[in-house]
Write the structure tokens for this entry.
Amino acid sequence: MKIRIIIEPIRSAKWPMLEVCINGKSFYDGVCEPNQENYFVWNFHLENVLPENTLEIKHQDKKAKETKIDSEGNIIADRAIVLKSLQFDDLSVPEVVLYNNRFYPDWPGQPEYIINNLYFGFNGSYIFEFTDDAKKMYFDNLLRQERIANRNNKKTIQLPNGETVESYEFNGKLVSGTERDTITIEELYQRVVDEN
């Protein structure tokens, strides 16, 4: 399986340090500096892919003094890595799925993990689980992306009879989640247009 990771390294006093592990085995451990324009691109062909695998991207070796702050507390320079893209057999993982995974900071005073973040300013590990079937995983990730979007898009509305039901925003309108009829997305779109 081909694996491609694209990272934007952020330099302070020096370039960040990166380790990439798959199933607990280190495959890259070194400086993370641009090798293609502004990005560090790591390509790897993994042999003997297991049905379930773990990819770990570690930001390491950062010292607190490498985050430079001005007199107002704003960060003016930092040593960090930003995950820009992750691909398996040339199929990209949707960005919202990448954001939904956990980063485990190895830094005093931080929570056990952080989500909704691809800027790894703390030392720590970003964990991504993958399977041996890149195409199936791609479509599973598209479904996962849709579930995440719907979960964040879900609201409740009160019907005229006083019942509270889940609804979803579609084209700027709230649509009840209790529809009993089967309808296509085109029919739903037309219904919303007709209500305008």
User: Anything to note?
Assistant: The two ends are 49 Å apart (CA to CA). The chain has two domains: 2-143, 159-195. The longest helix spans residues 134-153.
